[in-house]
Task: structure prediction
Amino acid sequence: MYNSRIIGMGKYLPDNVVTNDDLAKLMDTSDEWITERTGIKERRHIIKGSEDTPATMGHKAALMALERAGLEPKDIDLILFATLSPDYYFPGSGVLVQKLLGIPACPAMDIRMQCSGFIYGISTADQFIKTGMYKNVLVIGAENHSGGLDFTTRGRGVSVIFGDGAGAAVLTREEDTARGVLSTHLYSEGEHAEELSLIGPSTQRWVPEIMAENDPEDISYYPYMNGQTVFKHAVVRFSEVINEGLQKNGWEAADIDLLVPHQANLRISQFVQKKFRLNDDQVYNNIMRYGNTTAASIPIALTEAWEEGKVKEGDKVVLAAFGSGFTWGSALMVW
Result:
């Protein structure tokens, strides 16, 4: 039996910083309004016409992760690319990263689990490694939200939250089963699928059809979020899936060296922190700088935590996410 273990982390953020005051010039909002509801002060947005895409950002994060892992692209046996904003309808962004990395042949799989995408990616990589099928797996989370947001007052409830960026992790085989990923726990609840969704464009509602209608009241091609419903479910599911992982591994909340939650909303993270009675040193948040980067949020935050020395060898680390679908999950590991 093997475990899987993260041996390299990387991140990439666009250079363009968009502050709350910048958004206040586009819509009826303010720094105070956004900060009070989300904890976000600024985020990164791709400048239209730049070379940044989910695939190119994921590629840059992957190169950093590979360098830190001491591996070459040719050493990767499987690419898992988590995103809700792929470069194209098809093919998936995973094969685009494969091309950029110069890997002539390896499997590349896109994971469409939105905010929970990186957790699903870690779990998938873990299973492939534990079975012995693959040794080195590259897991990427990357998003370009800014290209499809409604930057008017009508869309402010969603548009002030999201940012762009990418994060990556390299997992490899670990023979010491007391180290690495100990367990992962995944769930979904399709009953609430439309509470956080993008209905069009889709195969049921192509972009030319939407544009031809020319209906300014039709907002179905912008992301929709029932904020109160999402918040209420998030705080419950976060707690449940973290508790499940703790019980599975015989840990107490006090044993957690670092919790890295998906950066959905600082108020959700603070609620979970209070529920588990964790101090500020036990929880890592960076949503105030980057907003919600969906599948990229956990790998970006975990990379920064490692860079800042907040994750050390032997530490007990918990990753947890909740998002559209609804989907949620956790991963518990010993670093």
Q: What stands out?
A: The longest strand covers residues 3-12.
